[in-house]
Amino acid sequence: QQQVKQSPQSLIVQKGGISIINCAYENTAFDYFPWYQQFPGKGPALLIAIRPDVSEKKEGRFTISFNKSAKQFSLHIMDSQPGDSATYFCAASLKAGANNLFFGTGTRLTVIP
Amino acid sequence: DADVTQTPRNRITKTGKRIMLECSQTKGHDRMYWYRQDPGLGLRLIYYSFDVKDINKGEISDGYSVSRQAQAKFSLSLESAIPNQTALYFCATRDSHYGYTFGSGTRLTVV
Hints:
The complex is a heterodimer.
Chain A: E1 4-7, E2 10-14, E3 19-25, E4 30-38, E5 45-50, E6 56-59, E7 62-67, E8 72-77, E9 86-94, E10 101-103, E11 107-112
Parallel strand pairs in A: 2-11
Antiparallel strand pairs in A: 1-3, 3-8, 4-5, 4-9, 6-7, 7-8, 9-10, 9-11
Chain B: E1 4-7, E2 10-13, E3 19-25, E4 31-38, E5 42-51, E6 54-57, E7 64-70, E8 73-78, E9 87-94, E10 100-102, E11 106-110
Parallel strand pairs in B: 2-11
Antiparallel strand pairs in B: 1-3, 3-8, 4-5, 4-9, 5-6, 7-8, 9-10, 9-11
């Protein structure tokens, strides 16, 4: 079963618009929530990450919003650019044990000029 | 040179053949991982290794085996390939602070 649920599967946004990708989880033991960006022919690369003790983290045009009570987190891309067109994965990791990453199913973002 | 190098980049093989995918890293990390990526399913963990003597199954290990030849090398084998193992395979390393570095992937097609 999918430990991290991600939506939408695909997203088309106009240049300059805001892209929003949502993820939800059930396991309250997760304590690290990264977002990965993947371009065609490349492996995923860490974009931004958050821990559950904060509700928001911003790095440039990328912001993670985290709602611990709802067990949801989302990625917001402000002023979306064609170069942001990629597949985005949310993920979650446990603090204890093997600390392996559980990935969402991915969102293919297309930013049109 | 890339931090995590996977070979081959692309491979087509026949059903029933044994195939090995190789991964090497220059990050100096002890932890190494093999993931499989399928459209609509995200990345799923096949095997992971915390050091040369510590190898663990992930969520989808059936039909796969691994070998950790050295700290820098971690290979994935399909003993008898089947068509539903057609996928994109990624090797990754991890540092002590959750930082994962992925290779560029191997696209495997089983016909």
